[in-house]
Amino acid sequence: MVGGEGASLKIGAPLVSGAMVKAEVVEQGRGPKVIAFKKRRRKNSRRKRGHRQELTTVKITEIIGA
Questions:
Q1: Which of 15, 41, 57, 63 has the maximum number of C-beta atoms within 10 A of its C-beta?
Q2: Which is higher by pLDDT, 6 or 53?
């Protein structure tokens, strides 16, 4: 949804043509550690991998209609 109330309200599916969004980056960090552990029984074979996803928090400051 873009715009205000009443007659000036614009709704798109899924986009409103010509609309712009202004945002600011609040925080950049990393998510929790996820461990992928695989073990094959009776074969003395195992593999452990860790992963942390990069995360960005964005704050929408303004929505400008066309």
A1: 63
A2: 53
Q: Provide the token pair at 61.
A: 């400051």
Whether pLDDT at 1 is above 50? no
**18, 7, 2, 9: which is closest to 62 by C-alpha?**
2
3, with CB counted inside 10 A (0-12, 13-18, 19+), is middle
The burial of 5, by beta-carbon neighbours within 10 Å (0-12 exposed, 13-18 middle, 19 or more buried), is given as exposed
Q: What per-residue string of b and e applies to 32-46 under the rule 16 or more CB within 10 Å gives b?
A: eeeeeeeeeeeeeee
